Amino acid sequence: MASDQGKAQAAVRDLLLHIGEDPDREGLARTPIRVAEALEFMTRGYHQDPRKIINGAIFSEEGYSEMIVCKDVDFYSLCEHHLLPFMGKAHVAYLPNRRIIGLSKLARLVEIYARRLQVQERMTTQIAQTIMEVLDPLGVAVVLEAEHLCMRMRGVEKQNSWVTTSAMLGMFRDRQETRQEFMNLIRTSTR
Ligand code: ZN
């Protein structure tokens, strides 16, 4: 990573020059280093394998077949169009098929996909499909609610808009009641 960071730091310095700043003034002297490090942190999901995270935490559970919901998972991501943050809450649910997963792993999964350059729609689908593939449950539902700084800081409109995306697989797609139960559960949300 070290050599890549050198290039990243040089690029940040170029950007500072491009906007008319003096990269050598005191306040900006360490900015290229900080930005390069922050960017590496915010994209560390590229180096983490979501399937491995889940695989290591699957438990057999014959007795429980109700919906499992992990809601209000905070996430911070970067939109791939502007490299500006979008952030909000993820709600993840699945219907187990004799196998369950540690709840914290659902939050980890959200984190891994958030820490990449993203579009909200794709992130939603990736979370749902990974759970479907690795855990093989009867269904998966994912809803993301997010605010995008590229909309808020750049546009004059849509200052308070939240973007909601969803992915429904298996029984969440096929059965209206299941989907509705999930939506009701996340509606009692904190917001
Ligand atoms: Zn954007």
Number of domains: 2
Q: What is the helix content? A: 40-55%
Widest sheet, order of strands: 5-2-3-6-7
Low-confidence stretches: none
Mean pLDDT: 92
Tell me about the largest β-sheet. 5 strands, mixed
Bound molecules: zinc ion
Distance between the termini: 39 Å
Instruction: Decide which structural class fits the backbone.
Output: alpha+beta
**Number of strand elements:** 7
Q: What's the architecture of the largest domain in CATH terms?
A: 2-Layer Sandwich
Q: Determine the strand fraction and express it as a percent band.
A: 25-35%
The value of Rg in angstroms is 20 Å
What count of helical segments does DSSP give?
Answer: 8
CATH class label of the largest domain = Alpha Beta
General shape: elongated
Helix-strand pattern: HHHEEEEHEHEHEHH
CATH superfamily of the largest domain: GTP cyclohydrolase I, C-terminal domain/NADPH-dependent 7-cyano-7-deazaguanine reductase, N-terminal domain
CATH topology of the largest domain: GTP Cyclohydrolase I, domain 2
